[in-house]
Amino acid sequence: QLQASGGGLVQAGGSLRLSCAASGRTFSIYPMDWFRQAPGKEREFVARIRWSGGHTYYADSVKGRFTISRDNAKNTVYLQMNSLKPEDTAVYYCTAGQAYWGQGTQVTVSS
Prior knowledge:
Layout: E1 2-5, E2 8-11, E3 16-22, E4 32-37, E5 44-49, E6 56-58, E7 66-71, E8 76-81, E9 90-96, E10 100-101, E11 105-110
Parallel strand pairs: 2-11
Antiparallel strand pairs: 1-3, 3-8, 4-5, 4-9, 5-6, 7-8, 9-10, 9-11
């Protein structure tokens, strides 16, 4: 099970930190991704991290503003989002290798 949390309403330029807590099975074999889906748009990749090695990847639209990290002891992946823009407004999902998905958490950035 993947439980995403941390979403909310923030003004442009603000910050939020999303969390994705993994439980119930071993997800260490999967890369952990954050995706997002804005109203009327397709779901899009945001960031990825691997449990081992910590290699990270980002969509160009968030590079330099978002940071993905993990806490292996807590089985939790984080997405620190800084300098938020109205176009970052979306439901954010965490996924393990795109095979298992969390329920999503709403992020709304006001201008």
